[in-house]
């Protein structure tokens, strides 16, 4: 039985309810009146139910699909402006005891190089990332409680925050590790993490258990209920996602929305972020063997429909996607992208991209400076901001800021300030030129005169050597 407030995975992600929702979507996908009424509700920026969202995703009326894309773009502009936050993944270890068939880290893969970074190696990786200009990291590890216990992750977080190289500093560490206990989530919270990230991979339980044939990740219930435990452990911001291509995309979309609805109903706030990775080629993994791959067109519509259904949730796009695809979907709702990513353990200190320990092939291999210039040329403000996290504006407090519309007087100037730091400390001359021109134009878009004046002064102070201003 479907129960949005149930603590049980099989009830808040109920298979029968998903299937009924997909049937409902099929019934109304060509119904202009129904679709218009859902779009009208969506324009209120209060979100949609999983059934309503599923109707929009299934919609087969071309002119209504154009309305869906246009509305997603407008909601993105209204709530997030033209900011795009940058981050990089940092792989600490690829030892793993799971059997995930879509991941090269699975324990049966005997020809991948296994590696775990020492604290000294982590320092070198972080310095390399700081020298690019990164301020925000997402830690990644395989699941191996013997080789990679939580104590190792906690030591690594402490190491990362301690490194201040030249003008560099990592100001927010997000963590993507295996599902764990409330007590261990409390320890992660105490260590000062930003967002706890855990991808569901697939919400289809039967497929999930086949794709994870052995290891602790095989336990669908333990994995799916992890976000509840994380929030019970005091973590305000959680990030979810599925790996598109493992199961039918409409099933996954409904599951994502049901999970978000469940967190909103039980914890008072939905996910901080939703990621939209697609399966990619990797060592011992051929994406062509999975028959649920999705086209770029469907991928774009999924992103648009997520943005409409959960308007206040950040959306993350990784370097799994090619530049052309990233450019196409950015306006539809994406608020964060990774840049200059290396998905290998120890990859940032290698001159060439290592291939022996990578989790997946990177499609966008540009430098961070190239990514920044690309975003500026497209009219976006690249942001390295971590102010909300450090000021305690997390969870429902961040959502309140977003819903109030005051984000332009807070997040927008913070984005400008962190972009200025990048321009002064790390940018090429060409990127400095276009970046500084953008900043002058964006000053005019700060509504409050007092905030605009302070931002202008902060930008000047950064030129003089001062750092880390924030609103």
The largest sheet is: 8 strands, parallel, barrel
Largest sheet strand order: 1-2-3-4-5-6-7-8
Number of domains: 3
- Which spans have pLDDT < 50 for at least 5 consecutive residues? none
How many separate helices?
Answer: 20
| Total DSSP E strands | 9
Return the CATH class of the largest domain. Alpha Beta
List the helices and strands and how they pair.
Elements: H1 9-12, H2 15-28, H3 32-42, H4 50-58, H5 62-80, E1 83-93, H6 119-132, E2 136-141, H7 150-162, E3 172-176, H8 182-190, E4 195-197, H9 205-211, H10 220-224, H11 226-232, E5 237-241, H12 249-267, E6 273-275, H13 296-309, E7 314-317, H14 323-329, E8 336-338, H15 368-377, E9 381-383, H16 387-390, H17 396-404, H18 411-425, H19 429-443, H20 449-463
Parallel strand pairs: 1-2, 1-8, 1-9, 2-3, 3-4, 4-5, 5-6, 6-7, 7-8
Helix pairs in contact: 2-4, 2-12, 3-5, 4-12, 4-13, 5-13, 6-7, 15-19, 18-19, 18-20
Provide a descriptive summary of the structure in words.
The chain has 471 residues and is α/β, with parallel strands linked by helices. The protein has three domains: 69 residues, no CATH class; 283 residues, Aldolase class I (TIM Barrel); 60 residues. 47% of the residues lie in helices and 9% in strands. The chain has an eight-stranded parallel beta barrel with strand order 1-2-3-4-5-6-7-8, surrounded by four helices. The longest helix is centred in the N-terminal third of the chain and has 19 residues. It is globular and about 60 Å long. The model has no long low-confidence stretch (mean pLDDT 93).
């Amino acid at each position: 039985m479907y129960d949005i407030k149930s603590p049980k995975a099989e009830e808040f992600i109920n298979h029968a309810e998903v299937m009924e929702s997909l049937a409902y979507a099929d019934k109304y996908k060509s119904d202009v009146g129904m679709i218009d009424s859902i779009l009208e509700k969506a324009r209120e920026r209060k979100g949609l139910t999983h059934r309503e969202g599923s109707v929009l995703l299934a919609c087969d009326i071309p002119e209504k699909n154009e309305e869906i894309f246009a509305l997603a773009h407008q909601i993105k502009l209204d709530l997030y402006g033209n900011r795009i936050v940058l981050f990089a993944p940092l792989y600490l270890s690829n030892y793993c005891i799971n059997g995930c068939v879509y991941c090269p880290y699975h324990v049966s893969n005997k020809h991948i190089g296994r590696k775990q970074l020492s604290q000294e190696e982590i320092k070198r990786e972080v310095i390399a990332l700081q020298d690019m200009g990164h301020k925000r990291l997402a830690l990644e590890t395989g699941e191996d409680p013997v080789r990679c216990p939580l104590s190792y992750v906690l030591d690594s977080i402490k190491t990362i925050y301690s490194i201040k190289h030249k003008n560099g500093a990592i100001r927010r560490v997000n963590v993507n590790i295996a599902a764990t206990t409330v007590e261990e989530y409390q320890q992660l919270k105490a260590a000062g993490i930003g967002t706890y990230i855990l991808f569901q991979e697939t919400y289809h339980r039967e497929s999930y258990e086949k794709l994870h044939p052995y290891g602790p990740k095989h336990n669908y219930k333990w994995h799916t209920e992890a976000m509840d435990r994380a929030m019970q452990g005091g973590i305000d911001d959680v990030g979810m996602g599925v790996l598109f291509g493992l199961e039918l995309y409409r099933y996954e979309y409904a599951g994502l929305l049901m999970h978000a609805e469940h967190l909103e109903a039980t914890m008072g706030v939905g996910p901080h972020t939703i990621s939209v990775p697609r399966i990619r080629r990797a060592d011992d993994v051929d994406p062509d063997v999975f028959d649920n791959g999705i086209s770029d067109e469907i991928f774009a519509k999924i992103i648009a429909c997520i943005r409409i259904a959960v308007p206040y949730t950040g959306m993350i796009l990784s370097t799994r996607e090619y530049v052309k695809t990233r450019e196409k979907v950015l306006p539809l709702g994406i608020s964060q992208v990774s840049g200059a990513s290396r998905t290998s353990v120890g990859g940032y200190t290698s001159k060439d991209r290592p291939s022996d320990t990578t989790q997946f092939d990177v499609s966008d291999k540009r430098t961070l400076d190239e990514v920044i210039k690309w975003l500026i040329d497209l009219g976006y403000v690249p942001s390295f901001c971590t102010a909300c996290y450090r000021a305690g504006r997390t969870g429902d407090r961040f959502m309140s800021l977003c819903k109030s519309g005051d984000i332009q007087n807070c997040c927008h100037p913070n984005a400008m300030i962190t972009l200025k730091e990048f321009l002064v400390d790390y940018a090429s001359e060409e990127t400095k030129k276009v970046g500084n021109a953008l900043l002058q134009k964006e000053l005019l878009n700060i509504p409050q005169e007092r905030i605009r004046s302070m931002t202008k002064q902060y930008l000047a102070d950064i030129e003089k050597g001062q750092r880390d201003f924030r609103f």
